[in-house]
TrEMBL record:
Residues 17-108 form the SnoaL-like domain. It comes from the Bacteria. It holds the Pfam family SnoaL_2. It comes from Nocardia mangyaensis. This is SnoaL-like domain-containing protein.
Amino acid sequence: MPLDQTARDLLAAVHASPRAVAAHDKTAWVALFAENAAVHDPYGSHAHIGTEAIGRFYNVFIGPNAITFDVDRDLVGGHSVVRDLRIAITMSTGATVTVPMHLRYDLAETEDGWRIIRLAAHWELAAMIARLLRVGPSGVLAGTKLGPQLVGELGVGGAMGMMRALRGVGGGGKRVTRRLFEAAAAGDASGVQALLAADAVVESPTGAPIAVAEFVDQARNMEWGKLIAAGRTVSASVRIGASHGVAFVEFAARQPRVTGVTVFLDGATPSGA
């Protein structure tokens, strides 16, 4: 179905981000965010809150690098946009790494138009570091340079906050997520329920809480791939019926119990650039 005006406006606001990144226009990029916006990049690390902190984040992770976006699809749900993509980062040393990613932008309408209030970048820090080191000397040099940049812009606390992304649900969360999807695809409502916390909320599509039985009926024969564990969340590229999308599976703080499943589906939403 065709996009309504709000969806088109949300996509336009989000698509302005890679344009500003490609142009190395810090002012334009930071202006896309609301005053007290939060950037979680990677998700699970310490958040950068407010335009000043977001500007420092830009100085470390965007400004020195050349970044290109390879987008498979964009998904709109409520006032959020999810991008299923890969990002190629070429660092100042010449090292290039490609990072599989799911980006979630939550937006709010302001007197200046739609602004990002929360950006959650779901990618795996440990896997990215491993890829960077495999590049060779230019990758090792890039990693060596990043440490002082982190401390210089974000302070010791900010640098340590970045390392929090190395903790999270990891491989165990991915295994539980696969079991959840396998049960849903097989029509096993009791198998899905066994993995959910008592107060878990399932939204499929996002913004529409549904019962487990309805989710299982909807997700029968679903397919999935590109599982990413970031913080206490596993995201996955999914196909449910004729629709493609991204599912976010959230876990409790200290146990492998699923507290939420949120699915963004494309319907007829075209991929953006």
